[in-house]
Design brief:
alpha/beta; 5 strands; 157 residues; five-stranded parallel β-sheet; Ribose 5-phosphate Isomerase B, Chain: A; 41% helix; homodimer; globular
Chain lengths: 157, 157
Amino acid sequence: MTNIPLKIALGADHGGFKLKDVLVTWLRAQGHDVHDFGTNSADSVDYPDYAHIVCDAVLSGNAHYGVLVCGTGLGMSYAANRHAGIRCALVSETTSARLAREHNNANMLALGGRMIGEEMGIDILRVFLATAYEGGRHDRRIAKIQPKFQPNVKGEP
Amino acid sequence: MTNIPLKIALGADHGGFKLKDVLVTWLRAQGHDVHDFGTNSADSVDYPDYAHIVCDAVLSGNAHYGVLVCGTGLGMSYAANRHAGIRCALVSETTSARLAREHNNANMLALGGRMIGEEMGIDILRVFLATAYEGGRHDRRIAKIQPKFQPNVKGEP
C-alpha cells in the first residue's frame, strides 16, 4: 500500500503533545522518517501555528503525510483544511481513518489528545498509513473541495 | 445562550440525507427557521456542492449556523473549512460539540450519517446550539486559523 519509510510531519499544541510524542515514538519504531515540529511541553501555545507549518511540509513535498494533535483535534482541522491541497481528517476511530484514505485520499490526520487514548491513536495512524485511495468517482468530488472563488481571504471575522 | 428562532442551513449528500432530514424535523419542532438545501434522496451526488452552498448561506449572514451531513462527515469538513470565516466542527459525540462552541466559536457542524445514530445527531445539535463561546485566549487562536498567505488556490492536486 505504502512505501517504507514514509516521511511524516507531526505537530501539536499543549493539549496534544503527549499523544503526538507517543505517535512519534511509534512511527520511528516502524522505520519512518519523522519530522517533529513540536510543541514538546505543556506550556500553552496556539494550535494554528503548528497546523500551518505541518501543512507547509506536506504541500512542499517534504512530507508524505502530516499528523496534528490538539485537545479535540477540532482547531487543527479547521486550520489545516484552509489550505488547498490538504485534506485533514479529524477522526476518533479506525473506520473513519480507513474511509479518509479510501474515499478522500486524505493526506493529514487531526487527532484529539484529550479525546482518544494512546492505543486508539496508534491504531488510527496504522490504518491510515496502510490504506490506499480508491480513486474512481471520488476523484471528481475531491476536485470540487476547493471553492472556485475564494469568497473571503481577509481573515477570520 | 442562543436566540430563538435561529436561522439554520442544512445540506447533505446521499450518505447523509436521512440524518439531515431527522435534524430538519427536530429543528423545526424547536421553532427554528430551517433552510434545507438537500439532497433529498439516495441518488448519488457530490458532497462539496452542498458544503459550499451552506457555507455561502452562513458567510452571507442568511444563516446563523450550518449543518452538513455526508457518510463520514469528512468530505464535508474539508470543503467547509476551505472557507475563511467557517469553522466547521466534525464531531461524533457531545463533548466535542460543546468544546467546538466554547473554544472555537464554531459556526458549522459536520456529521457522519453512516457513523452516528439519529439520537446522537440530535443531542450533538442540541448541545452545539445551547453552548456559548468563551472568548478570551481563544480569540487569538481563531484569528490565526486563516493562513496569512493562501499558498495555493489552483485547486486540488
